[in-house]
Amino acid sequence: MLLLQQLTTHSTGTYPLFTDLNLNFLIRLGIDLAAVLILVRGIYYRTYRRADLFLTFFSFNFIIFLISFLLNKVEMSMGAAFGLFAVFSMLRYRTESISLKDMTYLFLVIALGLISAISKGGGVEQLLFNGVILTVTFLLESPMLMKKESAQLVYYERIELIPPQQRDELLSDLRIRTGLNVHRVEVNEIDLLKDAARLTVYYYQ
């Protein structure tokens, strides 16, 4: 209600909230967009080579930034800020499923927008927090800390190699057939009627 009153009440013919859209707003927005660009283009795309979610990531970040910046002009408790963050972070698409890694990046772009809008320490604090998020994300996605492991679902017909005592032969056969450096495998389901099994193979990129 207070936000609505400030938006609809003006004393000198201008709206009070929008008189504050000055250099501070532009600096915050510029730092935020630069951080998202590094995250999405420099880390996400470099790792997964996907560009179909660029619009989603940038749109979520931009909307979160604007809403949080406007709400920050009125009194808002920390609980309300975290509540706003939780609402947007729990959003799901009804028409298309989104992977856990994509949801993680969506969570990160929302966090960047929220931090950039409500941080009280100015540009230096904003750069520090954004830099920490980007650095940690880069390290976790790079092979510097650990080897990057990927998983692939495979339907396999040689069920005679499924028993644990045949595991080495199974791994060797999977490496030859898939061309991947398979180092471990999980048996998800065995269909004895079709003489086939559903496996999850894990390999290093």
Q: Quick gist of this model?
A:
The protein is built from 7 helices and 3 strands.
Task: Write up what this structure looks like.
- The chain is α+β, with helices and mostly antiparallel strands and 205 residues long.
- The chain folds into two domains: 2-141, no CATH class; 149-204.
- It is 56% helix and 13% strand.
- It has seven helices and three strands, in the order H-H-H-H-H-H-E-H-E-E.
- It has helices spanning 2-8, 23-48, 54-71, 78-89, 100-118, 122-141, 167-178, and strands at 149-156, 182-191, 196-204.
- It has a three-stranded antiparallel β-sheet, with helices on one face.
- A hairpin with a 4-residue loop joins strand 2 and strand 3 (196-204).
Helix tally? Answer: 7
Order of helices and strands: HHHHHHEHEE
Rounded mean pLDDT is 79
The coarse silhouette is: elongated
Number of domains: 2
Uncertain parts: 1-18
* Main β sheet profile: 3 strands, antiparallel
The percent of residues in helical segments reads: 55-70%
Keywords: Membrane, Transmembrane, Transmembrane helix
Protein name: DUF4956 domain-containing protein
Pfam families: DUF4956
Transmembrane segments: 25-44, 51-70, 76-93, 105-121
